[in-house]
Write a structure and sequence with these properties.
Length: 957
């Protein structure tokens, strides 16, 4: 404790100090827990017998799931939690039934990596971290309904995560109905013949393996062998969203390579249009909506088939089908599945030497190039400035409009994650294709008339020419001519021509890829899937859920060289043979059979895709959620057409990860009739970040911020000069300040006030421990205005306050109330501070009505001191559920304002008037004023300009 606080305690035994704050806060936290103060009643049962409570509007307020880190909290972590707590408390006091709680997203790599290093079971370290974090959060006085809290690692919870996975596995997307439907309905269509099988055979003629393969092409959860992001350093594959812009893992910063592995996927692409369209009805920051729109990446164009002799078609997607006559070569992504099928045994006669890369055969060239490409990130592969590399496959395709044979290359600037993983190259009109064509001495043809004087011979150009305004040239065959057409008309004409001849059609493409849903790790939800002897995947019956994680001796995936792209995964679960190989009766009429369990686990995002639903009905063992409860808290209503949580607060970094995945799961569950809300979160608010100064020595190594000294604007650590920059707060940067430290020094209410007063909630701001004392002194003045520091007695009196105090009080009530409702907590605190200062300066004991209003006003912000003062004022019920004060409009407006009256631009009178006066009333008063009449001297009036209530300007005739 500071010397100032210790000295003050000696002088004033009942002064509000850190020690008193600690006692007050602990007592009221115990009281709230014992009384269930924050328990939100549900509509089934709780509200039925309480009409008054049932009549209240509901408010469901959520924070983004915290991960229980071993490092515990620093003061930056609770920013959003305190904000939602203040908002929730204000909503309770303004007549709402509020649901506000917090659980833990507890599966994931950090605990598993710690287990690999120490041998400690991930559950042991995770539960210890949860216990520590729970204690830290409790100390802040957060008003959570603790009955509803849970961790995703609890089997009672992930039973339903597995159940949802099975619902998704057993569903398909019906494009005609534009929704998901049970897979059994698709099977019925195949059985009846109303939907033909892919090869036209009767469903009954297909083997069980063939049927499974057909259905896998429709299922919303399916396993397939495809190019994936492989991180040997983590021993697992990653979704696109988990790879950073520089091609490394978001977790651990390990290199990420492309590899072909069999993995589980979620067919999120089926919902691409709905995920786009429903953004319009959400109250989200426009920046987040834009990120999702860009990630989904809808583009309209055409699918075009280029035949390859003996190997089928290479299909491309292009948004510039008008330039098809200019396609002089093709490029496949190195990972494209057609590569092996099209490469010949030897180089065709006359193959250009630069195309072969110096290799003796196409197979040798392709193998070598693929290995090089796999070691590069997607960003590196697409870098505009890099030299274009590639190799000829030895195959030629036919341009469907010109009939020309065009060479087919593989090159790393084409990615499987975009379009079809194949492009038609139009080098005259695309900068990347132009550079590649120059490097490999490929032909170029101008088909869009340049608007400058460069001419139409691309070999003389310095770069490609691209335009949506120019006319088409050199684009005709015996059946169609695009010459002279603009881009829009040319696109329409060639698309129709392609469709008529069965070699293409207009289509929509998305940047969004299916969600990679497998992880080769231990600490995650097991898949409720088993495989029979034919390799067919079977869902476990619901009676076998939850499928719990088995014990294993080694938590690590197979040890890899982080830089070796050729390694293959070996999961921890695969080494537990007794768990993997089982005999089960799945209740399908086949009796007990031998099966092999899936040995991948679900990604850490799985549990956070639906946790808002578990908050509603956390003890339901029979259903995912009671329909009446879900409808009450999250169902569609006026202004919220797709339903969802009323307020969701968290960081902007989850824009295309958690938020996109959760929206997808909600839409599937809605389509299948399990929930009424088609969106999980109606209103999203992104809080800013609390930053801190990072100090680094001459080696660039962070030094303890608390031990840095400042001398004349220069900073020193142990006598050595250090640099200072504003950055993140964290243990590794040695600048973390824990909430425990601030609570010990000043109390939790002071910490709450300081974090809310630092600035607008959605803006990042620097932490300054020295500034915390300002909010501490505010609480001390508040305390002194109600309690005598010498005796501890309440000093209020039962008299009516004066008009000046009433005006200060009601302006504060009106302004702070609006600010809290709008989450402008910094300005709300400023208004409370202004009122408290007024009351302090006024002197004398407070009127009881003013003291009680002041306590209610501060209750959402500093609940502990408010609860203490409320009870000291003689109340027995908690301040938490009291009504927030209501401002009297008569005292909110200023009693009078001064209006300046000018004649010929010179001030002739000043009028004290009502601020609500009309222009007509003000003009009449001004013209009747004796000073104005004298100034006019009987002259006529040409014009009167009125700006009520502050100005009247009279222009004589």
């Amino acid at each position: 404790m500071s010397e100032t606080n210790s000295a003050a305690e000696t002088v004033a035994p009942h002064r509000y100090t850190a020690a008193m704050a600690a006692d007050i806060e602990a007592r009221w936290q115990d009281f709230w827990d014992a009384e269930g103060t924050y328990e939100a009643p549900n509509p089934s049962g709780d509200l039925a017998g309480n009409p008054e409570l049932a009549a209240k509007p509901k408010k469901f307020i959520m924070d983004m799931f915290p991960y229980p880190s071993g490092a515990g909290l620093h003061v930056g972590h609770p920013l959003g939690y305190i904000a939602t707590d203040v908002f929730a408390r204000h909503q309770r006091m303004t007549g709402h039934n509020v649901l506000h709680t917090l659980g833990f997203d507890a599966f994931g790599l950090p605990a598993e990596q710690y287990a690999v290093q120490t041998g400690t079971h991930p559950r042991v370290s995770t539960e210890a971290n949860i216990e520590n974090m729970t204690a830290q959060l409790r100390r802040l006085g957060l008003g959570h309904d603790k009955r509803r809290s849970f961790a995703t690692i609890e089997s009672e919870y992930y039973k339903w995560t597995q159940w949802i996975f099975l619902r998704i596995f057993n569903s398909w997307y019906d494009t005609e109905a534009d929704r998901a439907r049970p897979i059994d309905e698709l099977v019925a269509q195949f059985e009846s013949g109303s939907r033909p099988t892919p090869d036209g055979r009767d469903w009954s003629a297909l083997s069980s393996v063939e049927r499974a393969d057909v259905l896998s092409g429709y299922r919303l959860a399916y396993a397939s062998a495809a190019p994936v992001n492989w991180s040997p350093g983590l021993g697992t594959v990653l979704a696109n969203e988990e790879v950073t812009a520089d091609g490394r893992s978001e977790r651990g910063n390990f290199p990420v390579f492309k590899a072909k592995l069999r993995q589980w996927n979620m067919r999120i692409t089926a919902y691409a249009d709905r995920l786009l369209n429903d953004l319009d009805g959400l109250d989200w920051p426009e920046a987040i909506k834009l990120q999702q729109r860009n990630w989904i990446g809808r583009s309209e164009g055409a699918r075009v088939d280029f035949p390859v002799d003996g190997a089928g078609d290479i299909t491309v997607f292009t948004t510039r089908q008008d330039t098809l006559f200019g396609a002089t070569y093709m490029v496949l992504a190195p990972e494209h599945e057609l590569v092996e099928r099209i490469i010949p045994a030897a180089w065709p006669e006359g193959t250009h030497a630069v195309w072969t890369g110096g290799h003796a055969s196409p197979a040798e060239a392709v193998t070598a190039y693929r290995k090089l490409a796999a070691a590069k990130s997607d960003v590196e592969r697409q870098a505009e400035a890099k030299d274009k590399t590639g190799v000829f496959t030895g195959a030629y395709a036919t341009n469907p409009v010109s009939g020309e044979k065009v060479p087919v290359f593989i090159a790393d600037y084409v990615l499987m994650g975009y379009g079809t993983g194949a492009i038609m190259a139009v080098p005259a009109h695309d900068a990347r294709d132009f550079a590649f064509a120059r490097a490999f001495e490929l032909p170029m043809r101008c088909v869009v008339q340049p608007s400058d004087d460069r001419g139409t011979d691309p070999s003389a150009w310095d770069d490609a020419f691209s335009s949506y305004e120019a006319k088409l040239v050199n684009s005709a065959n015996d059946e169609i001519s695009l010459n002279g057409l603009g881009v829009v008309d040319a696109k329409a004409k060639i698309t129709e021509w392609l469709k008529e001849r069965g070699v293409g059609e207009g289509t929509v493409n998305f940047r969004l890829r299916d969600w990679l849903f497998s992880r080769q790790r231990y600490w995650g939800e097991p898949f409720p899937i088993v495989y029979d002897e034919d390799g067919i995947a079977h869902p476990l019956p619901e009676s076998m859920l939850p499928l719990e994680l088995p014990e294993v001796d080694d938590y690590s995936p197979r040890t890899f060289d982080p830089e070796d792209a050729d390694t293959q995964p070996e999961t921890p679960l695969s080494r537990n043979a007794d768990w993997v190989n089982v005999t089960l009766d799945l209740g399908d009429g086949n009796g007990p059979r031998k099966y092999r369990r899936e040995t991948n686990t679900m990604p850490n995002w799985a549990g956070s895709c639906w946790y808002e639903l578990r908050y509603l009905d956390p003890y339901n063992d029979e259903k995912l959620v009671d329909p009446a409860i879900e409808q009450y808290w999250m169902g569609p209503r006026e202004g919220q057409p797709t339903g969802g949580v009323d307020l969701y607060v968290g960081g902007a970094e989850h824009a295309v990860l958690h938020l996109l995945y959760a929206r997808f799961w909600s839409k599937v569950l809605h389509d299948l009739g399990h929930i009424s809300s088609a969106e999980p979160f109606h209103k999203l608010y992104n809080q800013g970040m609390i930053q801190a100064f990072v100090y680094r020595d001459s080696r660039g190594i962070a030094v303890p911020a608390a031990e840095v000294e400042e001398r004349d604007g220069t900073f020193y650590y142990q006598g050595e000069k250090v640099s200072r920059v504003l950055g993140k707060m964290g243990k590794s940067l040695k600048n973390a300040v824990t909430p425990d430290e601030i609570c010990a020094e000043y109390g939790a209410d002071t910490l709450r006030l300081y974090e809310m007063a630092m600035g607008p909630l959605d803006v990042s701001r620097p932490w300054d421990t020295r500034a915390v004392v300002g909010q501490y002194r505010l609480l001390q003045r508040l305390w002194r205005n109600v309690v005598d520091e010498e005796t501890g007695e309440v000093t209020v009196v039962d008299t009516e306050p004066g008009e000046e105090t009433l005006r200060a009080l009601h302006k504060a009530i009106d302004g702070a109330g609006q600010d809290m409702a709008g989450m402008r907590f910094n300005t709300a605190i400023a208004k409370v501070t202004e009122l408290n200062n007024h009351l302090t300066k006024a002197g004398g004991p407070l009127s009881r009505s003013v003291a009680e209003s002041l306590v209610l006003l501060v209750a959402p912000l500093a609940p502990h001191i408010a609860e203490e003062l409320w009870h000291r004022l003689g109340h027995t019920e908690s301040v938490v559920h009291q009504d927030f004060p209501v401002a009297d409009p008569a005292y909110v407006v200023d009693e009078a304002v001064t209006c300046v009256v000018q004649v010929k631009g010179k001030v002739k009178a000043r009028l004290e008037i009502s601020p609500s006066i009309t222009d007509e009333e003000l003009e009449a008063l001004a013209l009747a004023d004796p000073a104005v009449v004298a100034a006019l001297g009987g002259a006529g009036i040409r014009k009167v300009i009125v700006r009520a209530p502050k100005l009247v300007n009279i222009v004589p005739a």
